[in-house]
Amino acid sequence: MPQYMLSVHMVEGDDRQPTQEEMELRMKRLGELEADMRASNTWQFSARLHGPDTATVVRKVDGRRVTSDGPFAESKEHLGGFYVIEAADLDEALDWAERTVDATGMPIEVWPFVATAGH
Amino acid sequence: MSRRPATSAGAPGTRRVSRPDAEEIGRIFRAQSGRSLATLIRVLGDVALAEDAVQDAFAIALERWARDGLPPNPGGWITTTARNRALDRLRRDRRGRELLDEVARLTPDDGELPGDEFEEAGGGRVVDDRLQLIFLCCHPALSLEAQVALTLRLLGGLSTEQVATAFLVTERTMAQRLVRAKRKIAAAHIPFRVPADRQLPDRLDAVLGILYLIYNAGADQPAPLGEPSLRAEALRLARLLAGLLPDEPEVAGLLALLLLTESRQAARYDEDGSLVLLRDQDRARWSRRLIAEGQQIARACLRRDHPGPYQLQAAINAVHADAIAFADTDWPQIVALYDHLLALDPSPVVALNHAIAVAEVDGPQAGLALIDALDGLDRYHAFHVARGELLFRTGDVEQAREVLVRAAALAPTDATRRHLRHRAEQLALQQPG
Question: Are strands A64-69 and A77-86 parallel, antiparallel or unpaired?
């Protein structure tokens, strides 16, 4: 079965804090969504990420490890979290993405995985 | 190439074999291969492989049909031949083995493809492969440009070069666009099926939008069009879709709209290629045959009483087609139809056309008042054309001329630009009648 990453991107400067009530509603919807994903064997993995200022980049320069602060790209947008799901096809993945939009109130990017042996 | 003269009948009982030339083979192949390609895409699950296989079959047809004459069922011949060529290609390719097993499972031993033409789908519906292919080509996960290109290439059977020429890009650019789109279909697993009922209205809307866009891209080309033209393709695909989805009134509405628009094509441009407005067109040059067909379809779908934007636009065009001269136009009826359309689709362009119709019923001042209240059309030439013509009719010749010059600068095509420059010059010499 094809696998997809459903990811949410945070936009810098767009950090209006949700009210307590909004936050609770969001958590409730995400809880329901994840329960449905698991019940249908759709859910593979999910994670929420800390902010971009906590990311570190590792390179090798002349055989020596060099670390630097921050994510790869200086951009206004950064990955905030993601689901990895299994779905029959893109239409099914888009249906789950729509539910994720409803739960988070954010646009969701749907990105197919390259098939690997065993999938 | 000239066609071989048919030889006189041979001995009694001998079947005369007519041997088609390459041009005729090309025409027959193009007309028949769409369905074969759609079936192969379903069976193989791979657009590029299916295309290559059909292309292989064409090379074989050129040789064999010219030698042995047409097979009794060219469509079936193409499907079987292309299927066999695809299997050959897969056997040669290691990575194809896995897919080959799958195809073998789907292909009964007698060599017939499963549901050669039709397949029983869920809910007892019979689904034509070409319908699923239309929804694949017009999938909203693809860019609009890619949707148009795929539709013309896979359903219209246009060559990459022909699609490139129609959209004024190089063949290389178009080939890359098609390759990218096919790669996304494969990588993202865009499905080959008719969308679920819940999604169908939106998805069908997108398909109709693509066909209308293809038609309009062709309508801006005044020169006699080489075969195949975008307008002819859009009409052919709209007919196909109306046949596949006979219960969708908006599909019939689009077909009627295209037929009625096409009926005026011969009158839309004068000898030097300038645009001729509806009011000035020589109505004797309208195609009565297309009008009759379009009006009949428009009436039939409106009787179902589920009017949508395409049906209403068809109805508006049907009213124009009824008028022997511009002065005979039933404008109150057209205003009523635009009122309805505006309620369904409150876009500025619809509001502009509504205002133009109102001006014909209630006078230029009433139309101008509506037009001046519109927002967001300042870069749209038709907005300035309408304003200019109405200003002229209120007697404000000088301002009318200025507005038309502005319209000409924004015009999308040479034909329109020429018409508007000419009109602006004319106004300077005329007084409103």
Answer: unpaired
What is the C-alpha separation between B240 and B251, in angstroms, rounded? 10
Question: Do B241 and B132 touch, CB atoms closer than 8 A?
Answer: no
Nearest CA in chain A to B193: A91
Domain span at residue B342 reads 334-433
For A88-105, the pLDDT digits (tens) are 999 999 999 999 999 988
Q: Is B98 on the interface with A (CB under 8 A)?
A: no
By CB atoms closer than 10 A (0-12, 13-18, 19+), residue B327 is exposed
Going by CATH, does the domain composed of A3-112 fall within 3.20.20.70?
Answer: no
CB contact under 8 A, A91 and B196: yes
H helices within A1-119, ranges in order? 20-39, 90-104
Predicted TM-score (pTM) of the model is: 0.82
Residues in a beta bridge with B398: none
Contact A91 B191 (CB under 8 A): yes
In a 13 Å sphere around the CA of B132, the CA atoms on its Cβ side amount to 26
3-state secondary structure of A44: strand
User: ipTM, 2 decimals?
Assistant: 0.86
Annotated domain spans of chain A = 3-112
Pairwise CB contact (< 8 Å): B189 & A114 = no
